Amino acid sequence: MGSKVTVEAVELDLERLQLLPGLVNAHDHLQFSLFPRLGSGPYLNATEWARDIYHPEREPIRPHLDVPKHLRLIWGGLRNLVAGVTTVCHHDEYHPVFDSGFPIRVLKQFGWAHSLAFTQDVRERFEQTPPGWPFIIHLGEGTYSDAAAELLRLHELGALTERTVLVHAVGLSGEGWDLVKRVGAAAIWCPRSNLFTLAHTLGREVVRSGVRLALGTDSPLTAEGDLLDEIRFAQDSGARACELVGSAARDVLRLSPDLDDWIAVRGFGTQPKLVVIGGEIRLISPSLARQLPSSLAAEFHSLHVEGRQRVLIRWDIRRLLDETRAYLPYFRLAGREIRS
How far apart are CA 169 and CA 188, in angstroms? Predict the structure, then answer.
């Protein structure tokens, strides 16, 4: 508590703030961050939810899809940055915008398949994933016996090993979790998304079982808010949330330990006053920004997300708002109003 640090050749007085590693969001679909939450569950499984909500020719999906994908992805990065996330795992194709000064770090070294239901070449994708990378797949996202059986199907395909990461896994049985632990696989918990779609999520017995576990937001299609909301839920459930978005998440995603990513906060689970990624300031509170030289302060722009304190972001927020409103006059970020 209370220290001076030098970032970008500027000494900042961070009195009464804690310095923590940047948070890791282990599962997100960044391109959906402007979409409203959709569906009227609970559903038996994710496939039933998808069939209910996916009507791209109708409101509200059609106008949101009109927004160019790179803009939607940037908003997804900002949604995470405001919460103190420095690394996110985007469960979709890697996009060139991630290499163009994107707001946060996006995991690149992993293999993935959407799910057994929507991906036909799961085994091939697993085998093509380099040995040192995690392989991530939605699995067991349901509350009936077929969801539990998916784990055995994945095992029979030879795609369940110590580098396999299961997203959701709500439908796994006790025997299934025993198998996950035995092979050393991991899981990503997205509790608020699970409760919206399935009215069920992982129980305390699973969260505390010793299974390798990380925390994720999923997309605003099923969970409004950001990773701080998931952290609060996890804490209320008795989980060690600081590990699920910290050391455990870095283990699950096999992140490099050498990343120069950190945040300054009043306390764990609170909105950050400072976010540093790769040694560069990406977010700073207005009060801390007074310590910056004017030339550096000019690179930051105001962003106020409903329910969060106003911060300064190293991104031209007004321009981004104008570019987005050219396609979608009114929108919210993960269910929350945005102001510059």
Answer: 8
Architecture of the domain defined by 23-259: Alpha-Beta Barrel (3.20)
Collapse the DSSP code of 25 into the 3-class scheme (helix H, G, I; strand E, B; otherwise coil) and give the result: strand
DSSP state of 67: S
pLDDT digits (tens, 9 = 90+) for 236-288: 999 999 999 999 999 999 998 888 999 999 999 999 999 999 999 999 999 99
Tokens read off for 126 = 């697993």
Are the beta carbons of 303 and 312 closer than 8 angstroms? yes
CA-to-CA dists, residue 138 to 30, 68, 288, angstroms: 16, 26, 40
H-helix segments, the chain: 46-53, 61-66, 69-82, 122-128, 145-156, 174-183, 191-198, 204-207, 227-236, 241-244, 247-253, 286-289, 294-297, 317-325
Q: How far is CA 243 from CA 214, 240, 246, in A?
A: 8, 6, 5
pLDDT in tens, 94-124: 999 999 999 999 999 999 999 999 999 999 9
pTM of the model: 0.97
Per the DSSP assignment, residues forming a β-bridge with 284 are 274, 312
Rounded CA separation 159/339 (Å)? 45
The C-alpha atoms of residue 250 and residue 257 are separated, in whole angstroms, by: 8
Secondary-structure breakdown of the chain: helix, strand, coil percentages, each rounded to the nearest 5: 35, 20, 45
Residues in the chain: 340
Tracing tokens 């950050």 back to the chain, one arrives at 272
What residues does 106 pair with on adjacent strands?
88
Phi-psi region of 169 (alpha: psi -120 to 50; beta: other; left: phi over 0): left
In 133-150, which positions are buried (b, 16+ CB within 10 angstroms) versus exposed (e)?
A: bbbbbbbbbbbeebbbbb
Q: What is the pLDDT of residues 142-159, one digit of tens each?
A: 988 888 899 999 999 999
Residue 319: helix, strand or coil by DSSP? helix
Q: Provide the residue ranges of all domains of the chain, joining segments of one domain with +.
A: 23-259
Q: What is the rounded CA–CA span in Å between residue 210 and residue 71? A: 39
**Tokens 């302060």 — which residue?**
297
List the structure tokens of 39: 């569906």
d(CA 182, CA 123): 20
**Cis amide prior to 42 (ω within 30 degrees):** yes
